[in-house]
């Protein structure tokens, strides 16, 4: 089954009205490969503006949301609110949410389930830390994180998995195409065994961690790498080259 390549830009807590306007310009002007799906992860306060400015062919994602529709949860936003401003996506479980904000596998899985129930599409992030890789625990960690998700997900059709080794995020140390391919392949085998062959074959697995215009093409050539989640480079016109890595 062909999996459509999908590239996400994760702007994190970066930008202001002026600089986001520049990003919107190059996204709108650049020739984006129509065979690649593009989604940008926008700080919550700019979601509505960015959604209004970008063509509908480009998806707009929140970078987080909570696990219930509304209530006394100061500072949080809900999937219902994301939908209310016409955005269809949310990034959940990013390693910065896990490590800086202490989100657990279980909380992330609950958020994913609620976002899916509300009709959002989800980029669910997983990935091991450097000490876990060095201890030979990469598969153990990503399988544990994926299992927590799988316990809550009833329908995988609106889920994209993003494998982002924590040691590669924002460090300039990209996983080699072989390292990334090995983990993606292992994840697909885990999904085949523990969820279904259909899900294993159809779910898209992005790689994230220091993806640049220079390394995207080689990573994209690997059979189980179905796209990227891009941080730093998504703020620059280089992002267009990364989107077009399959061309
Ligand atoms: P990076 O970030 O591309 O800056 O390494 C990736 C991410 O955090 O999604």
How is this structure best described in words?
This protein has 247 residues and is α/β, with parallel strands linked by helices. It has a single domain, classed as Aldolase class I (TIM Barrel, Alpha-Beta Barrel), CATH 3.20.20. 40% of the residues lie in helices and 17% in strands. It has 11 helices and 8 strands. The chain has helices at 17-29, 47-53, 79-84, 95-99, 105-117, 130-134, 138-152, 177-194, 197-202, 216-220, 238-243, and strands at residues 5-10, 36-41, 58-62, 89-92, 121-126, 159-163, 204-208, 227-230. Strands 1-2-3-4-5-6-7-8 form an 8-stranded parallel beta barrel, surrounded by 4 helices. Strand 7, helix 10 (216-220) and strand 8 form a beta-alpha-beta unit. The mean pLDDT is 97. The chain binds 2-phosphoglycolic acid (PGA). 2-phosphoglycolic acid (PGA) is lined by residues 10, 164, 169-170, 208-211, 229-233.
Name the descriptors.
247 residues, globular, alpha/beta, TIM Barrel, binds 2-phosphoglycolic acid, 40% helix
Radius of gyration: 17 Å
Mean pLDDT: 97
Strand content: 15-25%
Count helical runs.
11
Strand order within the widest beta sheet: 1-2-3-4-5-6-7-8
Largest sheet: 8 strands, parallel, barrel
What is the CATH H-level superfamily? Aldolase class I
Number of domains: 1
Q: What is the CATH architecture assignment?
A: Alpha-Beta Barrel
Highest-level CATH class: Alpha Beta
Low-confidence stretches: none
* Amount of helix: 40-55%
